[in-house]
């Protein structure tokens, strides 16, 4: 009736609800205002592996909840919506575009929440109209400015003397470039919504879904 994922979810929910594992998998927080951490997430180095789903490891850093990936991606987790399977993240250094090159979704258990995605080319530009494209202040520095151009922009309008190509970025949410330091991610596996209803005994809701 249940696949492996659903069985694992059901096992974990029953274990937690009944105080299994010597209460090792109880809900936790990194700070008084931090998001509640529970399955499929776990606090690594504080909770056993079986308390979370593979790839959903979180840690605490100065009362902040931190999501780290082997690709050097580091994000603060500001909120978790378990019903929608959505996490709200931000960059610890207030420079989300700096991490763009490290986002490898094939090695990431999460997906970009925003549907509108674009390809960008980043250039080091000087002496250009700053209204042409999006300036990246946190990537810029004294004597140089970094701008993001959509891949379809006629870059020939900017003289080669005033631009140096940095790198390409493929299929990233527009908000990751234009909307500041916030990024929404969601997950599709594990899906524990129906399993939770069954584990709590609400069979009428389970059958209605």
Automatic annotation (TrEMBL):
Ranges for domain Wall-associated receptor kinase galacturonan-binding: 25-87
Name by which UniProt lists this protein: RING-type E3 ubiquitin transferase
Leader sequence segment: 1-21
Organism encoding this protein: Hevea brasiliensis
Catalytically driven reaction(s): S-ubiquitinyl-[E2 ubiquitin-conjugating enzyme]-L-cysteine + [acceptor protein]-L-lysine = [E2 ubiquitin-conjugating enzyme]-L-cysteine + N(6)-ubiquitinyl-[acceptor protein]-L-lysine
InterPro entries reported for this sequence: ATL20-22-like, WAK_GUB
This protein's GO CC annotations: membrane
Keywords: Membrane, Metal-binding, Signal, Transferase, Transmembrane, Transmembrane helix, Ubl conjugation pathway, Zinc, Zinc-finger
EC id: 2.3.2.27
Taxonomy, superkingdom: Eukaryota
């Amino acid at each position: 009736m249940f696949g492996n994922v659903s069985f694992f979810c059901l096992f974990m929910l029953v274990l937690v609800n009944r105080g299994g594992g010597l209460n090792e998998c109880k809900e936790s927080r990194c700070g008084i205002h931090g998001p509640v951490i529970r399955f499929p997430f776990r606090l690594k180095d504080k909770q056993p592996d079986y308390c979370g789903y593979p790839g959903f490891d979180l840690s605490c850093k100065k009362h902040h909840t931190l999501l780290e990936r082997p690709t050097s991606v580091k994000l603060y987790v500001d909120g978790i919506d378990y019903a929608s399977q959505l996490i709200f993240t931000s960059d610890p250094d207030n420079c989300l575009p700096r991490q763009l090159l490290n986002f490898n979704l094939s090695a990431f258990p999460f997906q970009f929440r925003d549907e509108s995605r674009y390809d960008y080319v980043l250039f080091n530009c000087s002496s250009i109209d700053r209204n042409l494209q999006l300036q990246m202040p946190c990537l810029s520095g004294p004597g140089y400015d970094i701008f993001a151009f959509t891949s379809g922009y006629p870059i020939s309008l900017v003289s080669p003397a005033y631009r140096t190509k940095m790198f390409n970025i493929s299929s990233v949410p527009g908000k990751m470039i234009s909307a500041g330091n916030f990024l929404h991610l969601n997950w599709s596996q594990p899906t524990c919504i129906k399993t939770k209803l069954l584990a709590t005994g609400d069979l009428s809701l389970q059958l209605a879904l």
